[in-house]
Amino acid sequence: MSKHQLDPNKWVDRYSDYLYNFTITRVNDREVAKDLVQDTFFASLKSMKNFKGEASERTWLISILKRKIIDHYRKINSKKGKAEIRMDFKTEDDNDSNWLEERVADHQYKTAEDTLVNEELGEAIYNCLAKLPEKQATVFRMKTIEGLETETICNELGITASNLWVIIHRARIAMAECMEKNWFK
Amino acid sequence: MKNKSFLFISCEEAKHICDKAQYNEASFWEKFKLNLRYIWCHITRTYVNRNKKLTKTVKSSKITCLKNSEKQQLKEVFQEELENQHQ
């Protein structure tokens, strides 16, 4: 029996933020990132039979997302003309696929090390967030990551301000503990 | 007694103010009272330092996420696709 199993019913809750964050750092466009995440889920659903269970569900989804991002750049490339996009690259012997892999792997504005640290940190935060009860995770995400106003969150979720602060308090304690174990140790 | 409560806050209140301060929602007076407690209360000090560290870490990661409405929309569209697949 394979080590890892797929559970598409939980994909959106578990991985949409992580995949979106991965995408936005590579395409810099909210709408495009959203579409790519949606396309990834659809494509993954169609290729479920190819999943061998060797990688984790998230690793498998990320590998499909990477191909989607490459396809996106291929599309842009053919529309805008290769010269305009290829000018960042100095070596002449790079073939098209290698260039696209590079683009997907590392963000052009950061050093490889910065990208790696930020990605690992993002992963640690999302892992801790996934361990919180759903309500706490939602409120923490809206308040801390999206930076929404207290009133907006209360209206959207139908809770009072004092309720929100209790939830935030519990979420922050759990997040701090989890990050202490998994990131600061 | 009245003067005491005017300047001093409970540990729970201090934690609440500290949480609000992470989102710039604590008033100057609240922060003053928190700082006062921070000086002598070990529990408050530990909580404040840990809380600040979490804020700094999340900020430095520059993570982004889907809006709640976008996530809901994605969920609905995907659920539809999932049901189509099962049929």
Task: List descriptors.
heterodimer, A: 185 residues, mainly alpha, Rna Polymerase Sigma Factor, Chain: A, Arc Repressor Mutant, subunit A, 2 domains, B: 87 residues, 5 helices
Brief overview:
Chain A is mostly helical. Helix content of chain A is 74%, strand content 0%.
Write structural notes for this entry.
Chain A: This is Sigma-70 family RNA polymerase sigma factor. Chain A: Keywords: DNA-binding, Sigma factor, Transcription, Transcription regulation. Chain A: InterPro entries: RNA_pol_sigma-70-like, RNA_pol_sigma-70_dom, RNA_pol_sigma70_r2, RNA_pol_sigma70_r4_t2, RNA_pol_sigma_r2, RNA_pol_sigma_r3/r4-like, WH-like_DNA-bd_sf. Chain A: It holds the Pfam family Sigma70_r2. The complex is a heterodimer of chains A (185) and B (87). Chain A has 185 residues and is mostly helical. Chain A contains nine helices and no strands. Chain A folds into two domains: 109 residues, Rna Polymerase Sigma Factor, Chain: A (Orthogonal Bundle), CATH 1.10.1740; 74 residues, Arc Repressor Mutant, subunit A, CATH 1.10.10.10. In chain A, helix 2 crosses helix 3. The longest helix of chain A is centred in the middle third of the chain and has 24 residues. Chain B is an all-alpha fold. Chain B has one domain. Chain B has five helices and no strands. In chain B, helix 2 packs parallel to helix 4. At the A-B interface, helix 1, helix 2, helix 6, helix 7 and helix 9 of A face helix 2, helix 4 and helix 5 of B.
